[in-house]
Amino acid sequence: MSKPTLPSSASSMPNWQRDAQDHLWMPYCQMKTASSPLPVVATQGMHLILDDGRRLIDGMGSWWTACHGYNHPHIAAAVTQQLSVMPHVMMGGIQHPQAALLATRLAALLPGDLQHVFFCDSGSVAVEVAMKMAVQFYLNRGCGNRHRFVSFRNAYHGDTTGAMSLCDPVTSMHAHFKGFLLEQYPQALPHTEEDFAVFEAFVREHSDSLAGIVIEPLIQGAGGMKFHQLNTLRGLREVCDRHDVLFIADEIATGFGRTGSMFACQAADVVPDIICLGKALTGGTMSFAATAATNRVFEAFYDDNASHALMHGPTFMGNPLACAAANASLDLFESEPRLQQARALESLLQQELQPCAALDSVVEVRARGAVGVVQVKTLDRIPQIIAAGVQRGIWIRPFKDMVYVTPPLNMPHDIARQLCCTIVDVLSDWDADRLPTEASL
């Protein structure tokens, strides 16, 4: 195999990045044609710091995770302290204080009786665990044929095999794995009474094979940043109750304040049977996730019969460093006004991004909590848009048909306005075809 041709900007790369060109396989990109990745060497507050000293406002919050900004001293101190005592220990037959404390705190925060917390190591795995719980819930009750799920168009639930099967089978990045993945029941997300009548008829017809309905509450993330209303969640919960189907909430992206409440389901006063958590769980410090279940679900596993146990256990589940970071992050939700800050960001993002709505190429500007979206008719020249943002001091990563931001919940309003105003400027140049033809970061 011949060595790949380096991008034209390779000469400006730091040595460590140039040396890694042949070895570091990057996510979600065609390695042969992708622009050179940004050389980030440090983070601070709301900013990424590049190798050459430039500071960029991070509009992405590192894929929704950095809910308190970067390098928060309280989280750093908690992780440092835990590192000096015990970086990791297996959870097979062993417990430790940080995991015990975190499970107790999450059970107290989660709505209803979501009292039983299973830790894992990434959001996709949390979804896999939820699927496994749901199928085995019915197996343990003697219903061996209930092993399929209703998911929704524009859904995204992760990149592992089971989670991929829940993603939109036509428009998602996993569509070309058809035939390899488990077969589910993808449906249109219902909104109106008529929609729900059709949807419920489908669930009724297939209830004998259904283990669960899986939804990203209020915001469908990587499938297109699609928003839906509280009544949609309430309606889905009612359908599940009427047909004895488990309601599974994937709050990996929406949990921990992103939509303005601690968990998106709480805004609708809905309690799922199983909830998946991740991303901001550790305040953006390290990979960690959890799947929590209600008493009803847990009791189907709590039995003298050993075969009814949940036989799952990621090697690094309950990692003490991650638990320490998560506990410190929860401290900040208790001591600092994160939810109020997220709700205030909704108004700011809507207002400051609104000038984009006047552009010919823009379909809609919308915001919910600390999520702002500019949806366009057709998004092209993405590398040029990213490069223009970098040149103006911001980091954004558009995809599909939108430019979006998911900033830290505590982003100061002056910085958030600078982020939004820069996006307006960049998209104005893009709409008027004034961006350079070459993307140079």
From TrEMBL:
Q: Where in the cell is it found?
A: Cytoplasm
Question: Does the keyword field hold Transferase?
Answer: yes
One Gene Ontology term of the molecular function aspect: pyridoxal phosphate binding
- Keyword Lipid biosynthesis carried by entry: no
- Listed PANTHER family: ADENOSYLMETHIONINE-8-AMINO-7-OXONONANOATE AMINOTRANSFERASE (PTHR42684:SF17)
Coiled coil regions, renumbered to chain: none
- What is the protein name stated in its UniProt record? Adenosylmethionine-8-amino-7-oxononanoate aminotransferase
Q: Which UniProt keywords apply?
A: Aminotransferase, Biotin biosynthesis, Cytoplasm, Pyridoxal phosphate, S-adenosyl-L-methionine, Transferase
**What interactions and quaternary structure are annotated?**
Homodimer.
Recall the taxonomic lineage recorded for the source organism.
Bacteria, Pseudomonadati, Planctomycetota, Planctomycetia, Pirellulales
Pathway it acts in? Cofactor biosynthesis; biotin biosynthesis; 7,8-diaminononanoate from 8-amino-7-oxononanoate (SAM route): step 1/1
Which positions in this protein are listed as binding substrate?
63, 156, 279, 313, 397
Function, as annotated, reads: Catalyzes the transfer of the alpha-amino group from S-adenosyl-L-methionine (SAM) to 7-keto-8-aminopelargonic acid (KAPA) to form 7,8-diaminopelargonic acid (DAPA). It is the only aminotransferase known to utilize SAM as an amino donor.
Which residues are annotated as modified residue N6-(pyridoxal phosphate)lysine in the UniProt record?
279
Which cofactor does the UniProt annotation name? Answer: pyridoxal 5'-phosphate
Q: Which organism is it from?
A: Roseimaritima ulvae
Q: Which GO terms describe its cellular component?
A: cytoplasm
Per its UniProt entry, which superkingdom is the organism in?
Answer: Bacteria
